[in-house]
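Input/output pair, single chain:
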Amino acid sequence: MDNKLMLMIPGPTPVPENVLLAMAKHPIGHRSGDFSTIMAEVTENLKWLHQTQNDLLILAASGTGAMEAGIINFLSPGDRVLVGCNGKFGERWAEVCDAYGLKTEKITAEWGKPLDPEQFRAALEADTTKTIKAVIITHSETSTGVLNDLATINHYVKAHGEALIIVDTVTSLGAVNIPTDELGLDVVASGSQKGYMIPPGLSFVAVSAKAWQAYATAKLPRFYFDLGKYKKDAAKNTTPFTPAINLIFALQASLQMMKAEGLENIFARHQRLTQATRSAVKAMGLPLLAADENASAAITAVMPDQVDAEKIRSVMKKRFDIVLAGGQDSLKGKIFRIGHLGFVSDRDILAAIASLEATLQELGYENFALGAGVAAAAKVIATL
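Output:
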């Protein structure tokens, strides 16, 4: 049957019908008063979601664009930066830093393991001359399904006093609690096709007063991603360059949905879906890549040892029109990833787990009792 495709990947994530309908409206002039009114509402609701009163800037770009903007606006050539690398996206930020001539120092962990905050503490405490200008980390590393300990790492950055903390929250913003102002985060970057429940094309950067102080002396080249231009125009509820107008319409609708659900309910739903998925996978006898205490709320990475991960993905797509994500780089062909981010419900998880059970049965995997996964997921859903 056509048009029954079910996305269970970390992005793009499913889009609600009313958000799609909002996108179908005729564009309006992006310099008009009507559009400025929409921008004002959207910006205020974005600040609500980020739990911040800092500047909240909207870019027509992917999450990578937001992170690149977050790096190049506040640093200068040769600046020393610490970059947490325990997956594909941490490695990407190190590559961006290298591309701009920064002195990049990686703090690494094995893929599937969380970053060790004590390694950051040791490096920051040893920097008595305050040469470290920024610490850059990925909060939710979706290549492996690991949630890094942002609060503890941030605590050590704050104790250092000089360094900025720049955070990729692309797949954690809108899924877990990130109190930007309470933590004192300096740069928070995210992307639209994740927890925001809209298609790709927008990204967001929250910027602290401390970061703006660094901006005043930063010397890396920038033009389209010059956040000073966005700050100036945001004060007038507009943008320095042509925005993705219909995506702003979509964002207006999705943020209204999120406010109606409420932050605590959003976080609780993602936690419930994460636990339900992980419990189901365990009940089917399939190994998980990340430990429970470091599990991402966006994705569950599964490393099957008795059945081929790519065959599982293939059957799920062909038989049930359910798309699961594969592994990346060194994990390619070794894992599959089940997304539960954004516009995902209890019913979606139960349907995906039931389909996964049928897939495993078709592939001859017998290391579980049929129905065990659904029962485990249902139990979590009934109690959380």
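The chain has two domains: 17-260, 263-383. Residues 140 and 306 are 28 Å apart (CA to CA).
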